Amino acid sequence: MANPILVLAEHLRGSLTEVTFEMLGAARALAQSTGAPVQALLVGSGVEPLAAQLGAADSVLLVDRPDLANPSSEQVSLAAEQAAGKTGAGLIFVAGTNVSTGIGTLLAARAKLPLVNFCREIKVADGRPTFVSQLFGGKVFAEVRMAGDRGVVSLYPGAFRAEAGRADKAAPVERCDLQAPPAKVRFRRFVEPETGDVDITRQDVLVAVGRGIQSQDNLALAEELAQVLKGAVCASRPVIDQGWLPLSRQVGKSGMSVKPRLYIALGISGAPEHWEGMQSSRLIIAFNTDPKAPIFDGSQYGVCGDLLDYVPALTEKLKARSS
Amino acid sequence: MNIVVLLKMVPDTVEELNVGADGRSLDAEFLRYKLGDPDEHAIEQALLLKEKHGGTVTLVALDAPEVDDVLFTALAKGADRAIKLTGAESPPGTPVLAQAVAACVRGVWNPLPADTLILCGSYAIDDLEGELAPWLATAFEIPLAMVVAGVQIEDGGRKAVVTREFFGGLRGEFELDLPAILGIQSAEKPPRYVPIAKVRAAMKSARIDSQAAELPEPPAGLELGRMAKPEAAGHAQMLEGDPDKVADQIIEVLAQQSLI
Amino acid sequence: MDPVQISLLGVPGRAVLWALAIAAFGVFGWRIYQLVGLLRQGRFENRFDRLGWRVGHFLRNVLLQPRIFNERSIGLPHFLIFWGFVLYAGCFNWGLIRGLLPFVPIPYPDEVPVVRLFLELFAVLVLAGLGVALARRLFFPPKYLHLSFDANLILFLIAVLMLSNLFGSAFTQVAEGSPATGWAPFGSLLAAALSGVSKGAAHSLAIAMWWLHMIVVLGFLVYLPYSKHLHLLASPFNVFFNNPELPADLTLPGAPAEISAGASRWQELTWKQLFGGFSCAECGRCDRSCPAAAAGFPLQPQQIIQKVKQHLLATTIDQPRSAAGSPAPSLIGDVFTEGEIWACTTCMACMNCCAVWNEQVPLIVTLRRHLVSQGQVERTVQDMLANLTRYGNSFGKSDRMRAKWVQSGGLKIKDARKEPVEYLWFVGDYASFDPRLEEITRKTARVFQAASLDFGLLFEGERNAGNDVRRVGEEGLFELLRDRNLQTLAKARFQKIVTTDPHTYNTLKHEYRVDGRPLEVVHYTELLDQLIRDGRLPLKPRSNGPVTYHDPCYLGRYNRIYDPPRRVLAALGLELREMPRHRDTSYCCGAGGGRIWMEDTADVKERPAENRIREAAALEGVRTFVVACPKDIAMFRDAVKTTGQEGRIAVQDIAELVWDAVENAMTPAKGATA
Ligand SMILES: Cc1cc2nc3c(=O)[nH]c(=O)nc-3n(C[C@H](O)[C@H](O)[C@H](O)COP(=O)(O)OP(=O)(O)OC[C@H]3O[C@@H](n4cnc5c(N)ncnc54)[C@H](O)[C@@H]3O)c2cc1C
Ligand code: SF4
Ligand code: SF4
C-alpha cells in the first residue's frame, strides 16, 4: 500500500470551500489506482463540526486550537508538515486558491519537498502519478512527475469535480496537536465587500446581456440567472446606452475589463470592443440566435437559439438543483 | 523604509507560445519576455509606500531579454536602485531563483534592516514549482502574506497591516511584524503610466547594477515530461437540443468546473 | 474752418488736443507695452519665417475675410463694419495729425471730397447695420449671443461716431452755406433739414461734432485694449502669425525635453498660444462647430482660448490687489478641467472656421502633454499606450499578427523590405487587426491587384504611425514609433506610400521626414481615382445609389482631399446625395485624437457618430453611407445599431464599392456573385 495522500481541507468563515471537495475527489480517484489511503487535515479553531463533511477521506486529522482561528499560511503549513511526518503521508494536496496560496510552497520549502503547481489533471501509469500542470495562463500544459513518493501538489480550483469528493458517511476523526511558535502573522478582521453597486470586476460569475435581450423587462431573466449562480449582471454598450443598467456595468473597450470564472453572454454579438473587456474570462457560454455571431468564435460553449426560450429553462433547472 | 521589489520576467502570452523541439521547453523563436501583472502591481505598491513613508525602493531582477527596459521604466517611475543578476542561461525554477535572489539581498543587507519590506508578485504564470514569496519567507525566516491588495504601515514602521483578497469581494486584514515579505496581487491604485520621454531620460541618467547571480543546482525532486499546447479553442462547442436538454448540458459543464 | 483753432476755457484747442492725445496714447501704449511684455514671457516660437506667405495670408484673410462669410447673417455686416473701422481709424489719425501739427501741409480728411463721400457712405451703412443688430438683439436674440454691457456700450459709441460725422458734415454745410453736394449726400440731406439753425450756431456745433468725434475715438483707444475688443487690434497680427502647418503637423519647434512635457503654467505656453486669447472675438463659431460640445462633453473650444487670456491677465497685470501673494491657480485643475482637455477629437472644425485663425488643437495637445508627463492618463488610454509601446499597435496583438489578413485570405503580396515596389501600402492598425475590417482590407488588396498595381507591405515591420499617440500628448512614444517606422522604411524600396487610414496618411505626410524631406504619400481614394482615370480598373457597377459620402476630418479639413473620393463614386455610377454638413463642414465621427480609446462617461447626450448617422438617414432615398477611413467603419456601424437604423442605412467602405464593380466586370458570365 502506498503512502497516504494528505488533503489539506480549506475553509473560510466556518464553512468548507468547494475546492476541498475537488481535492478529495482527485485524491479518491488517485487512491483508486494506487491504493493509498486518503487523509484529510483540518486546521483551525472550532472547526470540529466540519470534519463530518469530509467523509470522502478515510480519516480526518483535526488540529483545533483557539489560536488557530483564521490561521496564517505559516501555521497551516507547519501543521501539515507535522501531520505528514506523523502519518508518513506521501502526497500532500493543497488548494491553489486565494485563501490557500502560499501554504503549499511554504511546506515544500521548509520540508524540502518537490512541489507541482497549477495542477489540472492527474494521470496514473505504472502506479505512479503524472501531474498535468497548466502554465502560462493556460497556453501550455506540462506533464510532471515526482522523483520520489513524497511531494506537494497545488490543485487548480475548478479543475476537478467536487461531486466526487462528497460522501454521505463520516470518516473517523483523530485529534492532533501542533508544535508551533507564536504566529508571526495575525488575523485582524474580515473586510466585507463594499455595498453600493456591484463591482463587476470582482465577480466570479457574470451574466452579460446585449441587444438580443430586446427590452428592459427581459432583464429580469438575466438577473434571476445571475442570482442562482451567485453572480451579477453586466452588459454590452447598447444596453447601457438605453439606460437599463448603470455605466459601471459596461464591459468592453470603453467600460470595464473583467475576468470572471464564468461569463454567460446573452444576445451579444461579440464585437471587438466588447471582446476586449471579457476575453480573459475563464469559461464563456454564449446564447445567440445567429449561428455566425462572432461571439461563438471565442466561447467554449454556444447555444444557437432565442435566449427567451433557453434562459428560463436553465434558471429553473439550476434552482431545482440547489433546493 | 527599506523597500525591496523582486521582479520576474515571464513569457509574454500575447506572442505565440510554442513548445520547442525537445518537448520540454518553450521554443525560443517567438518568445518575448515581460513583467507579470502582479509584479507591475508590486512596483506600484512599493512606490505608493515610498511616497507615503519615505525610504528607498530597490529592484532586484534576474537577467532576461527586455529586463533592462522594465528596470529603467521602474526607475523612471521613482524606484531608486536596480540590481540585475546575470548568468542564468534559461529561466530557473522558483527554488533556484529564490536562492539567487536571497543571496543578492543578503549581499546588500545583512542582517535585514528592521524596516525592510520585500514585495513581489503574488504569483507568476510559470510558477511550476511554487511562488517566489514563500520560498524567500522560508529563507529569511520572516513573516509572509500572499494575495495582498493593500498595505498600511503602522507603529512607526514596525508593523505592516495588509489586506488579502479572498473571493467574491471578501477580504481579510492581517498584521505582520517587519521585516516581512508580501506577495502582491494588486496595488491600491492601478500601476501608473510613465511617459516614454521619462524612461529615455532614466536610461541616460540612471544605472543598473549588474551582479553575477549565485545559482545553485536545481533540486532533483521533479521530472519535467512532455509539454504541449491545449487543443485550439477555435469555435465554441455548440449545445443542441430543446431548452431542457441544453440546460442539462450546461449544468453538467458548470458542475464539472465546480461552478455550481 | 479749423476745429482746433478755438479756445476751450481759455486754453488753445490745439493744446487741449495735444493733452488728450498724449493721455490717450499714453494709456493705450502702456497697456500694449504690458501685454507684449506678457507675451515675451511665454516660450519662443518662430512665427517670423516665410514672410511672403504671411503677407499673402494676411491680405486675403484680413482684408477680404472669407471666413467671416461662412456665417451668412453676420458676414456682410462684419465686413462693412471692419472696413468702416479701417476708414474711420485712418481718417482719425489723419485728422489728428492735421490738428496736432498745423505745419503739415494737408487738409482735414473731410475736406477731401472723395474721403468725405466714403465717410458718409460708411456712416450710413454702419448705422443701418447697427439698426439690424439692435433689432436682432431686441426681437430675435440668437441663443448664443449674450448681451454684455461691454458689447452694448461699444455699439452705442460706434453710433455716436457715425452720427457725429454725419452731423458734423451737415453743420459744416449749414455754417459755410455751401450748396448740397453729391460728395456729401447724407450730410446735404441733413443740412437741408437743419437749415433753420443759424450759421454761428452751426459753426459751433460742427466744431463740437469734430471734438465729440475725436474724444470718442480717443476714449475708444483707451478702452480697446482693456476690453474684448482687443481683438480688433490683435487679430490681424494673429492671422499674420498663423502657422499653416497646424494642426496637421504638431512637430514641436526644437523639441527640447521640457517642451515635449507640455505646459503646466502659462509661462510654458508659447507667445503665440498666449496671443490667441487677445485675438478671440468671442464669436462662438468654434463652439458651434465642435462635435464634443454638441455631444455634451465639457468642452468649448472658445473657452480653451479665452481661459488662457483670462488666467494670464487675472494673475498678472489685472490681478486684484487683494489676490496679490496668493498662490497662482494651476493651469490644469483650476483653469482647465481634465474633462475638457480630453474631450477633444482634434477634428479641426474649430480651427477651420475661426475667422481670426486661432489654434485650439495645438493648445489642447500642449495641455495633454503635461497630463501625460505626469502620468495622469485614464486607464483605457494607458493600456493603449502600453500596447503601442510594447507591440507597436493599439490592439495589444503580437506584431506577427499584423499581416494575418494576407495569409488567411490566401493573398500573395510583395514584401517591400525584400523587393522593390512602386507603392508601399502602409496598412495601419485598424485595417490590419480589426476583425470587422479584414475583409475590407482584402478587398482593397484585390482592387489593387485587379489594376496590376505594383505594391507591397512592410508586414510585421510596420508600426502604428503615431497620429493618435501624438494627439493624446505622448510625444516620446510618438517619436519612438516614428523612428522605428523610419528605420523600417529606410530598408524598403518604394516610390510612394499609399494608405487607407486618413490619420496615418496625415502623419506620414506631414510629420515624417526623411533627410529633411517629406515622404510622398497618397490616400487610397486618390490612388483609386487615378487608377480609374488611367483606365486600369474594369468597372461594371451593380447599383446606382443614391449614396452619401462622409468626409473624414483628417482627409478633408486636414488635407483638403474632397474631390477624388467623389470622382470615384461618380465613376462607379453612383448618385451622390450630400449631407448638409459636407466637405470642410463635415462632422467628426468622434474617434480622432485618441478619443476612440477613451472610456464612456455619463456626460454624453448623443455620440457624434450617432448625430452623423441621423443626418444621413434624413436624406431622401439614401441607404448607403460611404466612408473612406477604417475607423469610420467601426464608429458608424456601431452608430447605425445604436440609432436603430439597421436595415435602413448601411456603412460601406469606398473600396468595397469599387471591388463590387470590379468583380462584377471580371466575372462576365454569371454577373452577380454572393
Ligand atoms: C469606440 C467604440 C467603443 C466601444 N466600446 C464598447 C464597449 O466598451 N462595450 C461594448 O459592449 N461595446 C462597445 N462598443 C460597441 C460595439 O462595437 C458593439 O456595437 C456592441 O458591443 C454591440 O453590442 P451587442 O452585442 O449587445 O449588440 P449587437 O451587435 O446588435 O448584437 C446583438 C446580438 O443578439 C443576437 N440576438 C438577437 N435576438 C436574440 C435573441 N432573442 N436571443 C439570442 N440572441 C439574440 C443577435 O443575433 C446579435 O448577435 C464600442 C464601439 C466603438 C466604436
Ligand atoms: S478640434 Fe474638434 S473637438 Fe476639438 S475643440 Fe476643435 S471642434 Fe472641438
Ligand atoms: S476662437 Fe475664433 S472661432 Fe472661437 S470664439 Fe474666438 S474668434 Fe470665434
Structure characteristics:
heterotrimer; A: 323 residues; alpha/beta; 9-stranded mixed beta sheet; 5-stranded parallel beta sheet; 8 helices; 17 strands; 26% helix; 28% strand; B: 260 residues; Rossmann fold; two-stranded antiparallel ribbon; 13 strands; 29% helix; globular; binds flavin-adenine dinucleotide; binds iron/sulfur cluster
The kinds of small molecule bound in this structure are: flavin-adenine dinucleotide, iron/sulfur cluster
Secondary-structure class of chain C: mainly alpha
Average pLDDT over all residues of chain A: 92
Radius of gyration of chain A: 22 Å
Largest sheet of chain A: 9 strands, mixed
Compute the CA-based radius of gyration of chain C.
Answer: 30 Å
Subunit arrangement of the protein = heterotrimer
User: Helical segment tally of chain C?
Assistant: 28
Largest interface: A-B, 97 and 83 residues
Distance between the termini of chain A: 41 Å
Q: Beta-strand level of the residues of chain A, as a percent range? A: 25-35%
How many strands in all of chain A? 17
Plain-language structure description:
The complex is a heterotrimer of chains A (323), B (260) and C (674). Chain A is elongated and about 65 Å long. Chain A is α/β, with parallel strands linked by helices. Chain A is 26% helix and 28% strand. The model of chain A has no long low-confidence stretch (mean pLDDT 92). The longest helix of chain A has 17 residues, at 18-34. The longest helix of chain B is centred in the first third of the chain and has 17 residues, at 37-53. Chain B is of the alpha/beta class. In chain B, α2 (67-77) crosses α5 (196-205) and α3 packs across α4. The termini of chain B are far apart. Chain B contains six helices and 13 strands. In chain B, β8 (159-165) and β9 form a beta hairpin. The mean pLDDT of chain B is 93. In chain B, the strands form two sheets. In chain B, strands 9-8-7-10-6-1-4-5-11 form a nine-stranded mixed sheet, with helices on both faces. In chain B, strands 2-3 form a two-stranded antiparallel ribbon. Chain C folds into four domains: 7-40 and 71-226; 251-373, Orthogonal Bundle (Fumarate Reductase Iron-sulfur Protein, Chain B, domain 2); 394-531, 3-Layer(aba) Sandwich (Rossmann fold), CATH 3.40.50; 538-666, Rossmann fold. Chain C has 28 helices and ten strands. In chain C, α1 (13-41) runs parallel beside α7 and α3 crosses α4. The longest helix of chain C has 29 residues, at 13-41. Chains in contact: A-B, A-C, B-C. At the A-B interface, α1, α3, β7, β8 and β9 of A face α3, α4, β7, β8 and β9 of B. β9 (140-146) of chain A pairs antiparallel with β12 of chain B, so a sheet runs across the interface. One iron/sulfur cluster (SF4) is lined by residues 289-292, 299, 301, 344-350, 360-361 of chain C. One iron/sulfur cluster (SF4) is lined by residues 280-286, 301-302, 305, 354, 356, 358 of chain C.
